[in-house]
Write the structure tokens for this entry.
Amino acid sequence: QVQLVESGGGLVQAGASLRLSCAASGRSVSIYIMGWFRQAPGKEREFVSGIKWTDGNTVFRNSVKGRFSISRDNAENTLYLQINSLKPEDTAVYYCAATTTVRDIWPFRAGMYDIWGQGTQVTVSS
């Protein structure tokens, strides 16, 4: 099985930047898409951004476009999320996820991912 381990979260002030990392290890599998989700207290887990592992095609949640960027290092099996101009409403636990299922539609729902990391907390103070 593949394990995902996130890192890079922390407590920052509004306007700061963070770079989250997600390292994949374990048995080799054919990952189709990797993505970042976040979950704030009392709210559902929501899609933030994703990247197709083969061709690098990316998708972003509308509210983070222009501030977040996603990238991958295929050789290191690592996914990154660069977060700029952080806002208090970005406060959440950020999760890395992967799906091995090839679909005709982009997997925006959390239930469409079968491998998850443990999450990393991002807290933005105003």
